[in-house]
Amino acid sequence: MAARLHHRPYGDAGLLAGVLAEDYESRWSTTQALSAAVRDAHPSWLVDLVATYDHLFVTFDPGLCDHAGVQALLEQLNDALEPSSVAALGASAGHTFEVPVLFGGEAGPDLDAVATELDLTAAALVDRLTAAPWRVRFVASPVGTPFTDTPTWDAAVARMQVPRVAVPAGSIGLSGRQSIIYPVSSPGGWRLVGRTPLRVLDPTGDPDRLVPYRAGDRLELVPIDGARFAELETRGDRLGLEQ
Amino acid sequence: MSAHAHGPIQMTVESAGIAVVQDLGRPGHGDKGIPANGASDRWSAQMANTLVGNAPGTPLLEATGSALTLRFNADTLVSVTGASTRPEVAGRPAPTWEPFVVEADSALAVPAPDQGWRVYVAVSGGVEGERVLGSVSPDPMLGVGRRLVGGDRIALRSCVCGFSHPHSVHPLFRLGAGRPSYRSTAVVDVTPGPELQEFDEDQLRGPWTVSAQSDQIGLRAQGPTPVRSTRTEILSRGVPVGAVEVPPDGGLLVLLYGRLVTAGYPVPYVASTVALDVLGQVRPGDHLVLRRTEVPTAVDALLARRRELAGVAQRAAAALRASGLGHLVMDGHLSR
Question: What is the ipTM of this complex?
Fold first, then answer.
Protein backbone atom coordinates (compact mmCIF):
# COMPACT_ATOMS: atom_id res chain seq x y z
CA MET A 1 0.00 0.00 0.00
CA ALA A 2 1.35 3.41 -0.96
CA ALA A 3 2.45 5.79 1.76
CA ARG A 4 0.46 9.01 2.14
CA LEU A 5 1.99 12.43 1.52
CA HIS A 6 1.58 15.54 3.64
CA HIS A 7 2.24 18.66 1.50
CA ARG A 8 3.18 22.04 2.87
CA PRO A 9 4.32 25.20 1.05
CA TYR A 10 7.98 25.91 1.74
CA GLY A 11 8.32 29.39 0.28
CA ASP A 12 7.06 30.74 -3.05
CA ALA A 13 9.29 28.28 -4.95
CA GLY A 14 9.35 25.28 -2.63
CA LEU A 15 7.16 22.43 -1.45
CA LEU A 16 7.84 20.11 1.48
CA ALA A 17 6.25 16.69 1.20
CA GLY A 18 6.25 14.62 4.37
CA VAL A 19 5.98 10.86 3.82
CA LEU A 20 3.55 9.18 6.22
CA ALA A 21 4.01 5.44 6.61
CA GLU A 22 4.05 2.99 9.46
CA ASP A 23 7.71 2.56 10.13
CA TYR A 24 11.01 4.39 9.74
CA GLU A 25 12.35 2.06 7.03
CA SER A 26 9.31 2.38 4.77
CA ARG A 27 9.13 6.16 5.24
CA TRP A 28 12.76 6.42 4.20
CA SER A 29 12.58 3.97 1.28
CA THR A 30 9.40 5.62 -0.04
CA THR A 31 10.98 9.08 0.24
CA GLN A 32 14.02 7.96 -1.73
CA ALA A 33 11.98 6.08 -4.35
CA LEU A 34 9.67 9.09 -4.82
CA SER A 35 12.69 11.36 -5.28
CA ALA A 36 14.04 9.04 -7.98
CA ALA A 37 10.62 9.01 -9.68
CA VAL A 38 10.47 12.83 -9.77
CA ARG A 39 13.98 12.97 -11.21
CA ASP A 40 13.05 10.39 -13.87
CA ALA A 41 9.95 12.39 -14.80
CA HIS A 42 12.18 15.49 -15.19
CA PRO A 43 9.39 18.07 -15.15
CA SER A 44 10.41 21.36 -16.79
CA TRP A 45 9.83 23.30 -13.58
CA LEU A 46 12.15 21.20 -11.41
CA VAL A 47 15.06 23.21 -9.92
CA ASP A 48 16.28 21.01 -7.06
CA LEU A 49 15.35 17.95 -4.98
CA VAL A 50 16.45 17.04 -1.47
CA ALA A 51 15.25 13.68 -0.09
CA THR A 52 16.00 12.93 3.56
CA TYR A 53 14.60 10.41 6.10
CA ASP A 54 10.92 11.13 5.61
CA HIS A 55 10.66 14.40 3.66
CA LEU A 56 11.05 15.34 0.02
CA PHE A 57 11.85 19.03 -0.54
CA VAL A 58 11.12 20.18 -4.09
CA THR A 59 12.36 23.52 -5.44
CA PHE A 60 10.54 24.62 -8.59
CA ASP A 61 10.27 27.60 -10.92
CA PRO A 62 7.04 29.43 -9.95
CA GLY A 63 6.92 30.91 -13.44
CA LEU A 64 6.35 27.41 -14.83
CA CYS A 65 4.28 25.66 -12.14
CA ASP A 66 2.55 26.30 -8.83
CA HIS A 67 2.28 24.38 -5.56
CA ALA A 68 -0.87 22.61 -6.66
CA GLY A 69 0.80 21.40 -9.85
CA VAL A 70 3.86 20.10 -8.02
CA GLN A 71 1.64 18.42 -5.44
CA ALA A 72 -0.41 16.75 -8.16
CA LEU A 73 2.70 15.27 -9.79
CA LEU A 74 4.00 13.98 -6.43
CA GLU A 75 0.64 12.34 -5.69
CA GLN A 76 0.52 10.76 -9.12
CA LEU A 77 4.09 9.43 -8.84
CA ASN A 78 3.50 8.21 -5.30
CA ASP A 79 0.39 6.32 -6.37
CA ALA A 80 2.35 4.75 -9.20
CA LEU A 81 5.34 3.72 -7.07
CA GLU A 82 5.91 0.04 -7.59
CA PRO A 83 6.44 -1.90 -4.38
CA SER A 84 9.52 -3.31 -6.10
CA SER A 85 11.09 0.13 -6.58
CA VAL A 86 10.56 0.89 -2.91
CA ALA A 87 11.81 -2.56 -1.91
CA ALA A 88 14.90 -2.00 -4.08
CA LEU A 89 16.11 0.17 -1.22
CA GLY A 90 15.32 -2.57 1.28
CA ALA A 91 17.54 -4.26 3.78
CA SER A 92 19.73 -6.21 1.35
CA ALA A 93 20.26 -3.52 -1.30
CA GLY A 94 23.19 -1.21 -1.94
CA HIS A 95 26.96 -1.37 -2.07
CA THR A 96 29.14 -1.72 1.02
CA PHE A 97 32.26 0.43 1.30
CA GLU A 98 35.03 -0.41 3.72
CA VAL A 99 36.17 2.69 5.57
CA PRO A 100 39.50 2.26 7.37
CA VAL A 101 39.40 4.37 10.53
CA LEU A 102 42.03 5.31 13.10
CA PHE A 103 39.98 5.60 16.31
CA GLY A 104 40.84 7.86 19.26
CA GLY A 105 43.88 10.05 19.85
CA GLU A 106 44.29 13.12 17.65
CA ALA A 107 42.20 11.43 14.95
CA GLY A 108 39.23 10.98 17.32
CA PRO A 109 39.61 13.48 20.16
CA ASP A 110 36.12 12.84 21.61
CA LEU A 111 36.32 9.01 21.72
CA ASP A 112 37.11 8.76 25.44
CA ALA A 113 34.56 11.39 26.50
CA VAL A 114 31.78 9.82 24.43
CA ALA A 115 32.65 6.36 25.81
CA THR A 116 32.46 7.73 29.36
CA GLU A 117 29.08 9.35 28.67
CA LEU A 118 27.79 6.00 27.39
CA ASP A 119 29.32 4.14 30.34
CA LEU A 120 31.63 2.16 28.04
CA THR A 121 35.36 1.73 27.66
CA ALA A 122 36.87 3.26 24.52
CA ALA A 123 37.55 -0.25 23.17
CA ALA A 124 33.95 -1.29 23.79
CA LEU A 125 32.70 1.85 22.02
CA VAL A 126 34.85 1.03 18.97
CA ASP A 127 33.49 -2.52 19.01
CA ARG A 128 29.94 -1.19 18.97
CA LEU A 129 30.68 1.33 16.20
CA THR A 130 32.15 -1.41 14.01
CA ALA A 131 29.67 -4.19 14.88
CA ALA A 132 27.48 -3.54 11.82
CA PRO A 133 27.73 -1.35 8.71
CA TRP A 134 26.20 2.12 8.80
CA ARG A 135 23.53 2.75 6.20
CA VAL A 136 23.74 5.92 4.09
CA ARG A 137 20.29 7.51 4.43
CA PHE A 138 21.03 10.58 2.34
CA VAL A 139 23.89 12.80 1.20
CA ALA A 140 23.87 16.43 2.32
CA SER A 141 25.97 19.42 3.44
CA PRO A 142 28.73 20.16 3.73
CA VAL A 143 29.30 18.83 0.23
CA GLY A 144 28.91 15.06 -0.04
CA THR A 145 28.42 14.31 3.67
CA PRO A 146 26.84 10.85 4.19
CA PHE A 147 24.17 10.88 6.91
CA THR A 148 24.08 7.34 8.24
CA ASP A 149 22.56 5.23 10.98
CA THR A 150 22.39 1.59 11.95
CA PRO A 151 19.72 -0.41 13.79
CA THR A 152 22.37 -1.85 16.13
CA TRP A 153 23.22 1.61 17.48
CA ASP A 154 20.72 2.68 20.14
CA ALA A 155 22.81 5.26 22.03
CA ALA A 156 22.13 9.00 21.79
CA VAL A 157 25.32 11.03 21.60
CA ALA A 158 25.14 14.69 22.65
CA ARG A 159 26.57 17.31 20.29
CA MET A 160 29.41 19.70 21.14
CA GLN A 161 28.25 22.64 23.25
CA VAL A 162 30.45 24.87 21.11
CA PRO A 163 31.04 23.60 17.55
CA ARG A 164 34.62 23.28 16.30
CA VAL A 165 35.75 25.94 13.85
CA ALA A 166 37.55 23.40 11.64
CA VAL A 167 36.99 19.65 11.64
CA PRO A 168 39.63 17.81 9.54
CA ALA A 169 38.43 16.07 6.38
CA GLY A 170 37.80 12.34 6.91
CA SER A 171 36.69 12.75 10.53
CA ILE A 172 34.01 10.34 11.79
CA GLY A 173 31.42 12.26 13.82
CA LEU A 174 28.60 11.03 16.05
CA SER A 175 25.40 12.85 17.02
CA GLY A 176 22.21 11.36 18.35
CA ARG A 177 21.84 8.00 16.61
CA GLN A 178 23.73 9.04 13.52
CA SER A 179 27.24 9.04 12.19
CA ILE A 180 28.83 11.08 9.41
CA ILE A 181 32.14 11.37 7.62
CA TYR A 182 33.26 14.96 7.04
CA PRO A 183 34.31 14.91 3.34
CA VAL A 184 35.96 18.36 3.57
CA SER A 185 37.43 20.40 6.37
CA SER A 186 34.57 22.46 7.76
CA PRO A 187 33.07 23.80 10.97
CA GLY A 188 31.13 21.12 12.83
CA GLY A 189 29.46 20.21 16.10
CA TRP A 190 29.44 16.39 15.92
CA ARG A 191 31.61 14.41 18.37
CA LEU A 192 34.75 13.09 16.67
CA VAL A 193 35.71 9.47 17.39
CA GLY A 194 38.12 8.72 14.54
CA ARG A 195 39.32 9.64 11.08
CA THR A 196 39.77 7.87 7.75
CA PRO A 197 42.89 8.58 5.70
CA LEU A 198 40.96 7.99 2.45
CA ARG A 199 39.84 10.89 0.30
CA VAL A 200 36.06 10.98 0.14
CA LEU A 201 35.42 13.75 -2.37
CA ASP A 202 36.45 14.21 -6.00
CA PRO A 203 35.30 17.72 -6.95
CA THR A 204 36.94 17.66 -10.38
CA GLY A 205 35.20 14.78 -12.12
CA ASP A 206 31.64 13.78 -12.97
CA PRO A 207 29.23 15.54 -10.56
CA ASP A 208 27.33 12.28 -10.13
CA ARG A 209 30.54 10.64 -8.89
CA LEU A 210 31.43 13.47 -6.51
CA VAL A 211 31.30 10.94 -3.68
CA PRO A 212 31.37 7.16 -4.28
CA TYR A 213 28.32 6.30 -2.14
CA ARG A 214 24.62 7.12 -2.45
CA ALA A 215 21.52 6.69 -0.34
CA GLY A 216 21.07 2.98 0.46
CA ASP A 217 24.79 2.12 0.44
CA ARG A 218 26.63 1.03 3.57
CA LEU A 219 29.82 2.17 5.25
CA GLU A 220 31.67 -0.49 7.19
CA LEU A 221 34.12 1.09 9.63
CA VAL A 222 37.30 -0.99 9.95
CA PRO A 223 39.79 -0.09 12.72
CA ILE A 224 43.38 0.54 11.60
CA ASP A 225 46.52 1.59 13.47
CA GLY A 226 48.61 4.72 13.08
CA ALA A 227 51.13 3.09 10.74
CA ARG A 228 48.41 1.92 8.35
CA PHE A 229 46.77 5.37 8.53
CA ALA A 230 50.05 7.04 7.53
CA GLU A 231 50.54 4.56 4.68
CA LEU A 232 47.06 5.09 3.24
CA GLU A 233 47.28 8.85 3.71
CA THR A 234 50.59 8.94 1.83
CA ARG A 235 49.10 6.88 -1.01
CA GLY A 236 46.20 9.32 -1.26
CA ASP A 237 43.68 6.58 -2.05
CA ARG A 238 40.08 7.46 -2.58
CA LEU A 239 37.23 5.81 -0.70
CA GLY A 240 35.62 3.04 -2.71
CA LEU A 241 38.40 2.65 -5.29
CA GLU A 242 40.80 0.45 -3.35
CA GLN A 243 38.56 -2.61 -3.21
CA MET B 1 34.69 43.99 -32.66
CA SER B 2 38.32 44.94 -33.13
CA ALA B 3 41.24 43.78 -31.04
CA HIS B 4 42.95 46.40 -28.99
CA ALA B 5 46.25 47.68 -30.32
CA HIS B 6 48.15 46.90 -27.11
CA GLY B 7 47.63 43.16 -26.81
CA PRO B 8 44.80 41.32 -25.10
CA ILE B 9 41.95 43.39 -23.77
CA GLN B 10 41.79 43.13 -20.02
CA MET B 11 41.09 44.92 -16.81
CA THR B 12 43.52 45.23 -13.95
CA VAL B 13 42.39 45.23 -10.35
CA GLU B 14 44.09 48.26 -8.78
CA SER B 15 42.61 47.57 -5.35
CA ALA B 16 39.90 45.35 -3.93
CA GLY B 17 38.43 44.75 -0.50
CA ILE B 18 36.17 41.73 -0.55
CA ALA B 19 35.37 41.17 -4.21
CA VAL B 20 34.79 37.98 -6.17
CA VAL B 21 33.89 36.79 -9.65
CA GLN B 22 30.24 35.86 -9.32
CA ASP B 23 27.25 34.59 -11.28
CA LEU B 24 23.88 32.99 -10.47
CA GLY B 25 25.44 29.90 -8.88
CA ARG B 26 24.98 26.18 -9.39
CA PRO B 27 21.41 25.22 -8.48
CA GLY B 28 20.28 21.62 -8.74
CA HIS B 29 22.93 19.84 -6.66
CA GLY B 30 21.06 19.75 -3.34
CA ASP B 31 21.13 15.94 -3.41
CA LYS B 32 24.91 16.17 -3.10
CA GLY B 33 24.79 18.76 -0.32
CA ILE B 34 25.94 21.56 -2.60
CA PRO B 35 24.12 24.90 -2.20
CA ALA B 36 23.33 27.11 -5.18
CA ASN B 37 25.50 30.01 -3.99
CA GLY B 38 25.85 32.81 -6.57
CA ALA B 39 25.04 36.52 -6.28
CA SER B 40 23.36 37.34 -2.98
CA ASP B 41 21.27 40.02 -4.75
CA ARG B 42 20.09 38.32 -7.94
CA TRP B 43 18.11 41.36 -9.14
CA SER B 44 21.10 43.69 -9.12
CA ALA B 45 23.41 41.10 -10.70
CA GLN B 46 20.98 40.25 -13.50
CA MET B 47 20.21 43.89 -14.15
CA ALA B 48 23.92 44.82 -14.30
CA ASN B 49 24.43 42.19 -16.98
CA THR B 50 21.29 43.01 -18.91
CA LEU B 51 22.25 46.70 -19.15
CA VAL B 52 25.50 45.90 -20.99
CA GLY B 53 23.98 43.34 -23.38
CA ASN B 54 24.95 40.23 -21.41
CA ALA B 55 22.84 37.21 -20.56
CA PRO B 56 21.61 37.67 -16.97
CA GLY B 57 23.83 34.92 -15.54
CA THR B 58 27.09 36.11 -17.13
CA PRO B 59 30.06 36.22 -14.71
CA LEU B 60 30.51 39.67 -13.18
CA LEU B 61 32.13 41.21 -10.10
CA GLU B 62 30.52 41.32 -6.66
CA ALA B 63 32.10 43.63 -4.05
CA THR B 64 30.88 43.16 -0.47
CA GLY B 65 30.96 46.18 1.86
CA SER B 66 34.18 47.45 0.34
CA ALA B 67 35.73 49.55 -2.40
CA LEU B 68 36.93 48.28 -5.77
CA THR B 69 39.11 50.03 -8.35
CA LEU B 70 39.59 48.69 -11.85
CA ARG B 71 41.64 49.92 -14.79
CA PHE B 72 40.76 48.94 -18.36
CA ASN B 73 43.15 48.82 -21.32
CA ALA B 74 40.38 49.20 -23.89
CA ASP B 75 37.18 51.21 -24.13
CA THR B 76 34.67 49.04 -22.26
CA LEU B 77 30.94 49.14 -21.69
CA VAL B 78 30.28 48.83 -17.97
CA SER B 79 27.43 49.02 -15.47
CA VAL B 80 27.36 49.36 -11.68
CA THR B 81 24.32 48.21 -9.70
CA GLY B 82 23.40 46.97 -6.24
CA ALA B 83 24.22 48.86 -3.06
CA SER B 84 24.25 52.65 -3.19
CA THR B 85 27.68 53.94 -4.19
CA ARG B 86 29.19 56.86 -6.13
CA PRO B 87 31.53 55.47 -8.77
CA GLU B 88 33.98 57.69 -10.62
CA VAL B 89 35.87 57.35 -13.87
CA ALA B 90 39.10 59.35 -14.02
CA GLY B 91 37.81 61.43 -11.12
CA ARG B 92 34.46 62.30 -12.71
CA PRO B 93 31.17 60.93 -11.40
CA ALA B 94 29.84 57.93 -13.27
CA PRO B 95 26.24 56.69 -13.25
CA THR B 96 24.77 53.65 -11.56
CA TRP B 97 22.02 51.39 -12.96
CA GLU B 98 22.78 52.64 -16.50
CA PRO B 99 25.46 51.48 -18.94
CA PHE B 100 28.45 53.75 -19.57
CA VAL B 101 31.82 53.58 -21.29
CA VAL B 102 35.11 53.50 -19.41
CA GLU B 103 37.77 54.72 -21.83
CA ALA B 104 41.03 52.88 -22.33
CA ASP B 105 43.61 53.48 -19.60
CA SER B 106 41.02 55.07 -17.30
CA ALA B 107 40.30 53.81 -13.80
CA LEU B 108 36.82 53.01 -12.55
CA ALA B 109 36.73 53.63 -8.78
CA VAL B 110 33.76 52.18 -6.92
CA PRO B 111 33.78 53.30 -3.27
CA ALA B 112 32.42 51.20 -0.42
CA PRO B 113 28.63 51.52 -0.39
CA ASP B 114 26.93 53.98 1.94
CA GLN B 115 23.64 52.05 1.93
CA GLY B 116 23.22 48.39 1.11
CA TRP B 117 26.10 45.93 1.23
CA ARG B 118 26.92 44.41 -2.17
CA VAL B 119 27.85 46.23 -5.39
CA TYR B 120 27.84 44.55 -8.81
CA VAL B 121 30.07 45.58 -11.72
CA ALA B 122 29.27 44.04 -15.08
CA VAL B 123 31.40 44.46 -18.20
CA SER B 124 30.13 43.79 -21.67
CA GLY B 125 31.02 40.23 -22.68
CA GLY B 126 31.52 39.18 -19.07
CA VAL B 127 34.63 38.37 -17.06
CA GLU B 128 36.48 35.10 -17.15
CA GLY B 129 36.35 32.59 -14.35
CA GLU B 130 36.78 28.85 -13.90
CA ARG B 131 33.46 27.04 -13.90
CA VAL B 132 32.83 24.16 -11.50
CA LEU B 133 29.48 22.40 -11.91
CA GLY B 134 28.54 25.12 -14.38
CA SER B 135 29.28 28.15 -12.22
CA VAL B 136 32.16 30.47 -11.33
CA SER B 137 30.57 31.26 -7.96
CA PRO B 138 32.76 30.81 -4.88
CA ASP B 139 31.98 27.81 -2.67
CA PRO B 140 34.31 27.54 0.34
CA MET B 141 33.33 23.88 0.90
CA LEU B 142 34.14 22.89 -2.70
CA GLY B 143 37.23 25.07 -2.44
CA VAL B 144 36.39 26.97 -5.63
CA GLY B 145 35.97 30.60 -6.59
CA ARG B 146 38.09 33.62 -7.39
CA ARG B 147 38.62 36.41 -4.90
CA LEU B 148 40.19 39.51 -6.42
CA VAL B 149 43.42 41.04 -5.14
CA GLY B 150 45.29 44.13 -6.29
CA GLY B 151 47.34 43.45 -9.41
CA ASP B 152 45.01 40.76 -10.79
CA ARG B 153 44.46 40.91 -14.52
CA ILE B 154 41.17 39.68 -15.86
CA ALA B 155 40.69 39.00 -19.55
CA LEU B 156 37.72 40.66 -21.23
CA ARG B 157 35.78 39.22 -24.12
CA SER B 158 34.67 42.37 -25.90
CA CYS B 159 35.33 46.07 -26.08
CA VAL B 160 33.74 49.11 -27.64
CA CYS B 161 37.08 49.98 -29.21
CA GLY B 162 36.75 52.83 -31.64
CA PHE B 163 33.28 53.71 -30.43
CA SER B 164 33.28 57.43 -29.74
CA HIS B 165 30.81 59.08 -27.45
CA PRO B 166 31.05 62.74 -26.57
CA HIS B 167 30.38 62.25 -22.87
CA SER B 168 31.57 58.75 -22.32
CA VAL B 169 31.26 58.88 -18.57
CA HIS B 170 27.63 59.91 -18.81
CA PRO B 171 25.03 57.19 -19.16
CA LEU B 172 25.17 55.86 -22.66
CA PHE B 173 21.39 55.50 -22.60
CA ARG B 174 18.67 55.95 -20.03
CA LEU B 175 17.08 52.55 -19.76
CA GLY B 176 15.08 53.07 -16.59
CA ALA B 177 16.28 50.03 -14.68
CA GLY B 178 14.42 49.63 -11.39
CA ARG B 179 16.74 50.89 -8.68
CA PRO B 180 15.90 49.66 -5.18
CA SER B 181 16.59 51.85 -2.17
CA TYR B 182 18.24 50.36 0.88
CA ARG B 183 17.44 51.44 4.41
CA SER B 184 18.88 50.46 7.76
CA THR B 185 15.61 48.68 8.53
CA ALA B 186 14.86 46.10 5.85
CA VAL B 187 11.27 44.95 5.44
CA VAL B 188 11.35 41.28 4.44
CA ASP B 189 8.30 39.64 2.85
CA VAL B 190 7.82 36.12 4.21
CA THR B 191 5.30 33.35 3.51
CA PRO B 192 4.14 30.82 6.10
CA GLY B 193 6.50 27.90 6.73
CA PRO B 194 5.74 24.42 8.06
CA GLU B 195 6.05 25.33 11.77
CA LEU B 196 4.30 28.72 11.79
CA GLN B 197 1.47 27.42 13.96
CA GLU B 198 3.98 26.62 16.71
CA PHE B 199 4.79 30.32 17.20
CA ASP B 200 3.11 33.60 18.07
CA GLU B 201 3.51 35.76 14.97
CA ASP B 202 3.87 38.90 17.07
CA GLN B 203 7.07 37.45 18.53
CA LEU B 204 8.53 36.82 15.09
CA ARG B 205 7.95 40.21 13.48
CA GLY B 206 10.96 42.01 14.96
CA PRO B 207 12.72 44.37 14.57
CA TRP B 208 15.71 42.03 14.66
CA THR B 209 19.32 43.20 14.68
CA VAL B 210 21.63 41.59 12.12
CA SER B 211 24.82 40.39 13.81
CA ALA B 212 28.35 40.57 12.45
CA GLN B 213 28.32 36.74 12.34
CA SER B 214 26.44 36.89 9.06
CA ASP B 215 27.67 35.95 5.59
CA GLN B 216 26.46 34.48 2.30
CA ILE B 217 25.40 31.31 4.15
CA GLY B 218 22.92 33.16 6.32
CA LEU B 219 22.07 36.12 8.48
CA ARG B 220 22.07 35.74 12.26
CA ALA B 221 19.48 38.13 13.71
CA GLN B 222 19.50 39.00 17.41
CA GLY B 223 16.45 39.63 19.52
CA PRO B 224 14.25 37.92 22.06
CA THR B 225 13.87 34.14 21.71
CA PRO B 226 10.44 33.34 20.24
CA VAL B 227 8.53 30.79 22.32
CA ARG B 228 7.83 27.52 20.53
CA SER B 229 4.67 25.76 21.68
CA THR B 230 6.12 22.26 21.29
CA ARG B 231 9.41 20.51 22.01
CA THR B 232 8.98 18.01 19.18
CA GLU B 233 12.34 17.22 17.64
CA ILE B 234 12.57 17.82 13.90
CA LEU B 235 14.50 15.21 11.93
CA SER B 236 16.95 16.74 9.47
CA ARG B 237 15.21 17.67 6.22
CA GLY B 238 15.87 19.93 3.26
CA VAL B 239 15.62 23.67 3.90
CA PRO B 240 14.98 26.37 1.32
CA VAL B 241 17.06 29.46 0.70
CA GLY B 242 15.18 32.16 2.64
CA ALA B 243 14.13 29.82 5.47
CA VAL B 244 13.63 31.74 8.71
CA GLU B 245 14.86 29.31 11.38
CA VAL B 246 14.40 29.58 15.13
CA PRO B 247 17.42 27.96 16.82
CA PRO B 248 17.13 27.08 20.52
CA ASP B 249 19.87 29.51 21.59
CA GLY B 250 17.88 32.60 20.61
CA GLY B 251 17.36 34.98 17.72
CA LEU B 252 16.72 33.92 14.15
CA LEU B 253 18.76 32.45 11.35
CA VAL B 254 17.77 33.54 7.85
CA LEU B 255 19.31 31.25 5.24
CA LEU B 256 20.88 32.67 2.10
CA TYR B 257 22.12 31.09 -1.15
CA GLY B 258 25.16 29.45 0.50
CA ARG B 259 23.12 27.54 3.10
CA LEU B 260 23.65 23.94 4.17
CA VAL B 261 20.90 22.02 2.34
CA THR B 262 19.46 20.23 5.40
CA ALA B 263 18.68 21.32 8.97
CA GLY B 264 16.48 20.41 11.90
CA TYR B 265 15.30 23.78 13.26
CA PRO B 266 11.67 24.89 13.13
CA VAL B 267 10.89 27.08 10.10
CA PRO B 268 7.94 29.41 10.77
CA TYR B 269 8.49 31.51 7.63
CA VAL B 270 10.31 31.49 4.32
CA ALA B 271 11.43 34.76 2.71
CA SER B 272 9.96 35.35 -0.72
CA THR B 273 12.27 35.05 -3.72
CA VAL B 274 12.08 38.81 -4.25
CA ALA B 275 12.90 39.40 -0.55
CA LEU B 276 16.12 37.37 -0.93
CA ASP B 277 17.54 40.30 -2.88
CA VAL B 278 16.67 42.60 0.04
CA LEU B 279 18.41 40.18 2.43
CA GLY B 280 21.47 40.13 0.18
CA GLN B 281 21.88 43.88 0.75
CA VAL B 282 21.52 43.88 4.55
CA ARG B 283 24.54 45.16 6.49
CA PRO B 284 25.69 43.93 9.90
CA GLY B 285 23.93 46.14 12.43
CA ASP B 286 20.89 46.71 10.19
CA HIS B 287 17.42 45.73 11.36
CA LEU B 288 14.99 43.23 9.87
CA VAL B 289 11.22 43.45 10.11
CA LEU B 290 9.33 40.40 8.84
CA ARG B 291 6.11 41.13 6.94
CA ARG B 292 3.79 38.22 6.31
CA THR B 293 2.53 37.80 2.82
CA GLU B 294 0.90 34.89 0.98
CA VAL B 295 2.38 32.75 -1.77
CA PRO B 296 0.30 34.09 -4.71
CA THR B 297 1.29 37.66 -3.83
CA ALA B 298 4.96 36.68 -3.59
CA VAL B 299 4.79 34.87 -6.95
CA ASP B 300 3.09 37.87 -8.60
CA ALA B 301 5.91 40.10 -7.35
CA LEU B 302 8.53 37.71 -8.74
CA LEU B 303 6.86 37.47 -12.15
CA ALA B 304 6.48 41.27 -12.30
CA ARG B 305 10.24 41.55 -11.72
CA ARG B 306 10.99 39.09 -14.48
CA ARG B 307 8.84 41.15 -16.86
CA GLU B 308 10.63 44.32 -15.79
CA LEU B 309 14.01 42.73 -16.43
CA ALA B 310 12.86 41.58 -19.88
CA GLY B 311 11.60 45.10 -20.61
CA VAL B 312 14.95 46.65 -19.71
CA ALA B 313 16.62 44.00 -21.87
CA GLN B 314 14.51 45.03 -24.88
CA ARG B 315 15.41 48.69 -24.40
CA ALA B 316 19.10 47.90 -23.84
CA ALA B 317 19.30 45.81 -26.99
CA ALA B 318 17.49 48.43 -29.08
CA ALA B 319 19.75 51.18 -27.79
CA LEU B 320 22.94 49.16 -28.36
CA ARG B 321 21.89 48.27 -31.91
CA ALA B 322 20.94 51.86 -32.70
CA SER B 323 24.42 52.91 -31.57
CA GLY B 324 26.17 50.40 -33.80
CA LEU B 325 26.99 48.22 -30.80
CA GLY B 326 24.63 45.39 -31.67
CA HIS B 327 27.54 42.95 -31.54
CA LEU B 328 27.57 43.38 -27.75
CA VAL B 329 24.14 41.81 -27.37
CA MET B 330 25.03 38.30 -26.25
CA ASP B 331 23.32 35.01 -26.93
CA GLY B 332 21.03 34.50 -23.95
CA HIS B 333 20.32 38.23 -23.48
CA LEU B 334 16.72 38.52 -22.34
CA SER B 335 15.83 40.57 -25.43
CA ARG B 336 16.33 37.47 -27.56
Answer: 0.94
